[in-house]
Design goal:
The longest helix is centred in the N-terminal third of the chain and has 30 residues. A two-stranded antiparallel sheet has the order 1-2. The protein has a two-stranded antiparallel ribbon with strand order 3-4. A hairpin with a 2-residue loop joins strand 1 and strand 2. Helix 6 runs antiparallel to helix 7. It is 68% helix and 2% strand. The chain has 333 residues and is an all-alpha fold. The two termini are 38 Å apart. The chain has two domains: 162 residues, A middle domain of Talin 1; 131 residues.
Length: 333
């Protein structure tokens, strides 16, 4: 007996109609999930560009750009255009998340867990839009700005988890390495999260306030917070090195060891950018690169931790292993 598709007044809802008419391949589902990851990174970097160009109050209200106009006006100049452009990217992000939801919902067999993760991304986008509005209403209060950035990283977390899960089955997770190694990997995730959070205090106490006016800063010494942030960074590097070598000792699968190597490369680049920007007066270009590196680092940390276990198909054909999904997405496929 088939479950009846949801209807409104006897008419199929658009999502149910698509699910009945279209069955995406596993590769399409994973690409849809990847598009949400890419746009989550883009929204973080462009949000940083708004702040670095002093365009945070380019649109001085929300959800409109001015009290009288939904769009940026010529009087607001380049700052209004930059801030309004970043707001418009939220719709592109929403479209990417929507594609991920539709692809997960239309997949056969049905993947309810993947669909729930897609909807969680949708609500994260909506919540962060509200936080962004509060940030404008409070005149770029640094605590609100920090919350806006952390909410964007929460979305990135959900998007990355969806992407990884799209390449797995729906069976119960099975360990691929011994328990102590998994605990070490998740310790790395926790400390990396603290590193990202500490970075908001460096930004909040630094000179890039997001607007040319006298925007208040966090009541911390910038140099002190930069040093605290550096301590967390060194701990993350130490943990990443430990995971890298331990995975070789326990003869972990090749893809897991490759993800540990990729994380080390990202950390090397990110650490170099961080020190150069600190000793060169925090130039805007390097800050933007550092924000990009922060997102890539977080993705690499999550992928490494998630690769320490696997989820086989719940039933034959219910999913594909992550290794096969990666191969399907490779240029040679």
């Amino acid at each position: 007996m088939h479950k009846r598709a949801p209807t409104i007044g006897g008419v199929l809802t658009p999502l149910a109609y698509i699910a009945q008419r279209w069955t995406p391949s596993p590769k399409t589902v994973r690409r849809a999930a990847l598009s949400a990851v890419v746009m989550s990174v883009v929204i973080v970097v462009t949000g940083g560009a708004v702040r670095l160009t002093g365009s945070g109050l380019g649109c001085d209200t929300w959800p409109k750009c001015t009290d009288d106009s939904l769009f940026a006006t010529p009087e607001q100049g380049i700052h209004g255009a930059i801030e309004f452009g970043n707001r418009m990217l939220t719709y592109v992000l929403s479209a990417a998340v929507g594609w991920a939801i539709v692809a997960a919902r239309a997949a056969k067999p049905r993947r309810r867990g993947l669909t729930r993760l897609g909807w969680a991304q949708f609500w994260a986008v909506m919540s962060n839009a509200v936080i962004g509005g509060i940030t404008v209403w409070t005149g770029l209060n640094p605590w609100s700005v920090a919350g806006h950035f952390l909410a964007a990283n929460a979305l990135l977390t959900l998007a990355t988890l969806t992407w990884v899960r799209a390449g797995e089955g729906d069976g119960a997770p099975r360990p691929r390495v011994p328990g102590p190694v998994r605990k070490l990997g998740w310790t790395l995730v926790v400390v990396a999260g603290l590193l990202v959070a500490a970075g908001t205090t460096v930004t909040g106490s630094g000179k890039h306030a997001g607007d040319s006016s006298d925007v208040p800063r966090m009541p911390f010494d910038f140099a002190t917070m930069a040093h605290v942030h550096a301590v967390f960074a060194w701990v993350v590097c130490a943990l990443a090195l430990a995971v890298f070598f331990v995975l070789r000792v326990v003869d972990a699968p090749d893809d897991t060891r490759a993800r540990a190597r990729d994380l080390l490369l990202v950390l090397l680049a990110q650490g170099g950018i961080g020190y150069v920007q600190y000793f060169t007066g925090v130039p805007e270009v390097l800050v933007a690169l550092h924000m990009l590196g922060s997102s890539l680092m977080w993705i690499a940390v999550l992928r490494l931790a998630l690769s320490l276990r696997e989820r086989p198909p719940a039933d034959p054909g219910a999913g594909i292993p992550a290794q096969q999904a990666d191969a399907a997405l490779s240029p040679a496929a």
